[in-house]
């Protein structure tokens, strides 16, 4: 068994890469997913976000919990492919207010999204109020300012994966950054009139389950203190090989639907006892059906979370006909 805590970065990379299952077949002329989802506006209203999952070159980091590489290319993305993918999706999606361009890595990684395509991407985004892209903190630099200026009308929002504010776990996740790196990137974005969204994991490897709630709370607070307008709670999911191995070793338990519910409930319940929330917290429900939950009430409970995301307050758990007690 590899002791990840003591291993250096090279050993962690070897561990992560050695356990990977096969990559999915993807086409650089097509996004690997696109859909419209609802999000709260922050003023009580709801907005529609057109979300396009872009096919591009794999992210150069190899985070221990990441399975996004499955739908990526091994070679640099051909020039023109990203605008082609965006056009393909927009022609098929209903109208929306926000455009999310998620590329399973960093939008400002030039091997993933060629710089030469930024202008055309910006022109395709022109009718939207807001454009959200994701990026590793290490790649947040002047290129984000140039893209902000190319956009013209729409407000740029950059999503950073903090994952956790627990420095030791962050290192063991092989994220290649510290909490201070995250703060530096966040502060650069805010100083330059770019909004900040943050991804926080629910369910951490190497940490006992009873400590998850406190870790999530601290990560959400760290995100808001860094200026986040939105924090998205993402349940850590199996599927990349590494987490399966850590589960086998007793170092990871996949989070259940109840863990995600408690993370969101905790944030809303805590409102009175802490400083007023400066932003929105969302439970990420993209893969919620895969979370362990009793079949009798899982769908109703995911639906409750969807509503809580929109109204930003708690709702009672739905009655459970079989008496499973929402385990
Ligand atoms: S930086 Fe993000 S996309 Fe890249 S490997 Fe880590 S989690 Fe995955």
Annotation keywords:
single chain, 327 residues, alpha/beta, TIM Barrel, eight-stranded mixed β-sheet, 10 helices, 8 strands, globular, disordered N terminus, binds iron/sulfur cluster
Note the topology.
Elements lengths: L8 H10 L14 E8 L5 E8 L27 H10 L7 E5 L15 H7 L5 E5 L7 H10 L3 E9 L3 H6 L6 H13 L3 E8 L9 H14 L4 E6 L6 H7 L8 H13 L10 E4 L14 H14 L16
Structure characterization notes:
- It is a single chain.
- The protein is of the alpha/beta class and 327 residues long.
- It has a single domain (9-311), classed as TIM Barrel, CATH 3.20.20.
- 32% of the residues lie in helices and 16% in strands.
- The protein has helices at residues 9-18, 81-90, 118-124, 142-151, 167-172, 179-191, 212-225, 242-248, 257-269, 298-311, and strands at 33-40, 46-53, 98-102, 130-134, 155-163, 195-202, 230-235, 280-283.
- The relative contact order is 0.11.
- Mean pLDDT is 93; it is low at 1-6.
- Bound molecules: iron/sulfur cluster.
């Amino acid at each position: 068994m590899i002791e990840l805590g003591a291993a250096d970065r090279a050993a962690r990379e070897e561990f992560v890469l050695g356990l990977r299952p096969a990559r999915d077949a993807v086409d650089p002329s097509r996004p690997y997913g696109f859909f419209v989802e609802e999000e709260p506006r922050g003023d009580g209203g709801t907005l529609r976000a057109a979300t396009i999952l872009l096919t591009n070159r794999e992210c150069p980091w190899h985070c221990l919990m990441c399975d996004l590489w499955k739908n990526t290319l091994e070679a640099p993305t051909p020039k023109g492919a990203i605008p082609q993918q965006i056009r393909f999706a927009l022609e098929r999606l209903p109208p929306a207010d926000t455009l999310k361009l998620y590329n399973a890595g960093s939008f400002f990684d030039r091997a993933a999204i060629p710089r030469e395509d930024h202008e055309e991407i910006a022109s395709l985004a022109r009718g939207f109020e807001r454009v959200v892209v994701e990026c590793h903190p290490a790649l947040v630099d002047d290129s984000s300012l140039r893209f902000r200026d190319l956009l013209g009308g729409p407000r740029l929002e950059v999503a950073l994966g903090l994952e956790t504010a627990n420095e030791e776990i962050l290192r063991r996740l092989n994220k290649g950054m510290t909490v201070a790196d995250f703060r530096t990137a966040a502060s650069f974005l805010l100083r330059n009139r770019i909004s900040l969204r943050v991804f926080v994991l629910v369910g951490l490897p190497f940490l006992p389950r009873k400590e998850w709630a406190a870790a999530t709370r601290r990560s959400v607070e760290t995100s808001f203190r860094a200026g986040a307008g939105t924090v998205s709670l993402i349940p850590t999911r199996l599927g990349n090989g590494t987490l399966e191995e850590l589960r086998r070793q007793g170092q990871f338990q996949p989070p259940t639907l109840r863990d995600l519910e408690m993370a969101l409930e905790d944030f809303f319940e805590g409102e009175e006892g802490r400083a007023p929330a400066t932003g929105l917290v969302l439970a990420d429900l993209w893969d919620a059906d895969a979370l362990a939950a009793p079949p009798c009430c899982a769908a109703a409970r995911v639906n409750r979370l969807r509503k809580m995301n929109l109204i930003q307050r708690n709702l009672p758990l739905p009655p459970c006909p079989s008496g499973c007690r929402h385990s």
